[in-house]
Design brief:
Strand content: 25-35%
CATH topology of the domain at 5-44 and 157-231 and 334-385: FAD/NAD(P)-binding domain
Structural class: alpha/beta
CATH superfamily of the domain at 5-44 and 157-231 and 334-385: FAD/NAD(P)-binding domain
Number of helices: 7
Distance between the termini: 39 Å
Radius of gyration: 22 Å
CATH class of the domain at 5-44 and 157-231 and 334-385: Alpha Beta
Number of strands: 19
Helix content: 10-25%
Largest sheet: 10 strands, mixed
Amino acid sequence: MPAFNHYDIVIVGGGIQGAAVAQAAAARGYTVLVLEKTALAAATSSRSSKLIHGGLRYLENGHFSLVHESLRERSEWLRLAPSLVRLSPFYIPVYRETSRSSLIIRAGLSLYALLAGGGSSARFRSVPKSEWEQLDGLTTEGLKQVFQYWDAQTDDRLLTQALMHSAQSLGAELLCPAEFIHATLSSSMCEIDYLQGDRINYCRAAVLVNAAGPWVNKVLHRIDPLPVEYPIDLVQGTHLVLEGCLNRGCYYLESPADRRAVFVLPWYQHTLLGTTETLFNGDPEESYPLVTEETYLLDCFHHYFPERNRVVREKFSGLRVLPASQGAAFRRSREIHLQCDSPQSPRLVSIYGGKLTVCRATAQKVLHTIMPTLPDRTPKADVSRLMLESP
């Protein structure tokens, strides 16, 4: 029999969710191993809109608790990672054809500010007409009003790396590249096989955390006994990076094609444009920007910035995990769902969905869920006091 390394928690997936769970678990004194098959933040966690935000648009869908939690977490990110997360001004233009009136948008911003709890990051204003010509070439034809509010931007890849670096400083182990192959669950432990290089290795854990993002159900198929899947849809979001930079800030636009929200953001001296919502049915490895998505985004950009350059430097797509539904993806909840093999003493917990902004809060929910299965350990640190910097 081979010798087994034993961990309290083994995490499959080195995206933002896996990194956050690793940091939170290591801070509480648990022994942690993270298995990542390619690289940290290699998929969805580096292909987002790069925003740490409350989700203003979620208010009209009634997701008030998610917005409140997200705004609370935004404050924490600004405090703990000031070199990685920064406040930026966001502009919402209101035109004659805009589906949401100035009154509705003002009401939404007022509620957003209330849920944020006040302070400088909660303020908003109506931009005077005298300033409209300074808004990066935003067309003023039919423009009735412009609102400015504040949200935060980040580099999602660097943020993931910073969380994992913090976890490792607390004793967590990262194997990368290392691919999860199989696990057998019993009432007493999880036995786990993983591929590192050309060799199969083995370890044991009290709990297995499935943080594989779009691959979450593929991981489940490698576990005995076969766990119950949570029904999901994969929804592709494509972004374009355009030549040229924005000087005034970020723009929250309404697509003229379908009235969805589209962001135009400064990104490393260029412009980030996104995103789309396209139902995806293939292998997550094969997600790529579609011609129709690129056209959709460029048409929206040209509608609002007719004089600006539309040369595409880069394009990428990421996959969101959303609850299976017949409704439009734009309207679906972004709440996290944790699926366990046992409600009393789980050996396995799978993370479905979630947002970049609330990954730290999600990690605390995961630990609360698996606490009955874990041994007593002496905490090493308080994550609410751990400063994060780019490694």
